[in-house]
Amino acid sequence: MAKEKDTRTLLLEITFEEVYTNGYQGASVLKILKKAGLNKGSMYHFFENKKEMVLACIREKSKEIFGTKYEDILKYPSSYLEHFQTMLLTSYPIICERGCPLANLIQEMSNIDPDFELLLKERYERLRETIEKILVKAIEHHELECSSPYNLSLFILSVVEGAILSTKALKDKAIYDNTIKSLFSVLKQNQHLF
């Protein structure tokens, strides 16, 4: 049973890298299997096809990539905005080069396939909800004034994703860093934005 889990985990890890690098449509099952040192039968033991393997990858990797880092901020006793900014500035060197894996797939697949659209929308909304929870904590600890944490969380997520896309397009990480610093500078001024 442990070997089966290891094989499945290996397939998902390599699938993530292949899709992140080449997109869903450009991802090659043969490359994935070759990198994993497996034959097609090994993949079909766990997944019906490439689509099912990638959907499983999204389900499992999105929590690992986004959920944990964002949710860890909620464990601090205070300084939520400071921890949020630090996490964003230190956690995204690869994302700034290759883009956000979630946003990349949303742009590629959400208009093409309803299963991708549904799952990607759900994952994006979970990410936004976690940001909203961080904002609620910041409001409770008087770090921020805001009457609509929902709207502000959507705004923050849009700014962060826009910064990642601009950084990827222009190949300049300073764009990302400056955008995040500017965003939090405005938030920390405790202006009532939303």
TrEMBL record:
GO terms for molecular function: DNA binding. It comes from the Bacteria. Keywords: DNA-binding, Transcription, Transcription regulation. Residues 5-65 form the HTH tetR-type domain. Residues 28-47 bind DNA. InterPro entries: DNA-bd_HTH_TetR-type_CS (IPR023772), Homeodomain-like_sf (IPR009057), HTH_TetR (IPR001647), Tet_transcr_reg_TetR-rel_C_sf (IPR036271), TetR_C (IPR011075). This is Transcriptional regulator AcuR. It comes from Sulfurospirillum diekertiae.
